[in-house]
Amino acid sequence: MPSWPTPLLAAATLACGALAILSAPWGLGQPWMNLVFKPLTTLLIIAYAWRRGADQALTRRWVLVGLGLSLCGDVALMWPERGFLPGLVSFLLAHLAYLRAFTRDGVRLAMRPLPFVLYGGLAALILWQLWPGVPRGLRVPVLAYVVCLAAMAAQAAVVGLQSRGTPRWRSGVWLALGGALFLCSDALLATNRFAVPLPWSGLWILLSYWLAQWCIASWLEAPASRAG
Fold it and tell me: Are 98 and 62 in contact (CB under 8 A)?
């Protein structure tokens, strides 16, 4: 992976993400642009995460596994019909990998119950609203996915709360924000697919998704040589 400075990686990620978002829905580019720049944006976030967390070997490994599985999901979802179920499974496994990462360093699963209560209630409300539009053949995988997604977001909040008053407080806030944005992105995607088409859906779904992944990667400790 290239060891680029963080500002350069951030600028490249922003540029690639913008090209991916603009290429398809508004006809501002060729179809191949989405096929190239959508996975490339996630690859750049992987490059950003790769250079972080040198002293968190196991945690870093599981975050990278989650990002790699997310990349597989990105590629699958470029074919919305045939690729939806493989993409769903890829992201479900990504959330499980993130859960593994977020339960390291003495932070147990659901160590603080309140985020799980809140995210569980929110996920149940979203699922209740969308359930009539979910095809019968997808109901079990969608339900399993929502459970894993809500648990990931809740555990990210638990890690953030546990980091209060420690040197990791700032990175804990990034992680909690990343979990919330991931749930927001998937709620928008599900609403657009199973309920009503949303205006500018690609913009809001992908923007919140990539911001979520960047925040999760930012939770890993920055390289010692320079503040990341």
Answer: yes
CA 169 – CA 165 distance, rounded (Å): 6
In a domain, 37, yes or no: no
Closest to 24 in 3D by CA, of 208, 185, 184, 201: 201
| Host domain of residue 176 | 62-219
Coil, strand or helix: which one is 1? coil
Burial of 153 from C-beta contacts in 10 A (0-12 / 13-18 / 19+): buried
The answer to whether the beta carbons of residues 66 and 90 sit under 8 Å apart is: no
Question: Token match 């709360």: residue?
Answer: 161
Number of domains in the chain: 1
- Position 126 in a domain: yes
pTM attached to this predicted model? 0.93
Convert the pLDDT of each residue in 56-88 to its tens digit: 999 999 999 999 999 999 999 988 899 999 999
What is the four-CA torsion angle of 88, 89, 92, 94, rounded to 10 degrees?
A: -110
Instruction: List pLDDT tens digits, range 122-142.
Output: 999 999 999 999 999 999 999
